[in-house]
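Notebook, bench 3.
Goal today: get a predicted structure for Cytochrome c oxidase subunit 7C, mitochondrial from Tachysurus vachellii so we can plan the truncation constructs. The sequence was checked against the plasmid map this morning, with no discrepancies at the termini. Length recorded as 63 residues. Pasting the sequence as submitted so the record is complete.
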Amino acid sequence: MLGQAVRRFTTSAVRASHYAEGPGQNLPFSVENKWKLLGMMVLFFGSGFTFPFIIVRHQILKK
């Protein structure tokens, strides 16, 4: 009974959505320009990788 209600809700929600379809259309950023995407990914992942090293350097240099 509950499964049928969930199934009805999900199918009606899918039918009611009016989003563009296709690869990359449901992402919050554009994948059309591969160089811009590469730059964004390098900044995003690079900042997460270098942040701990910057914190350690700050702690070592702190008096």
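The helical segments are 2-16, 34-61. The mean pLDDT is 83.
Flagging this for group meeting.
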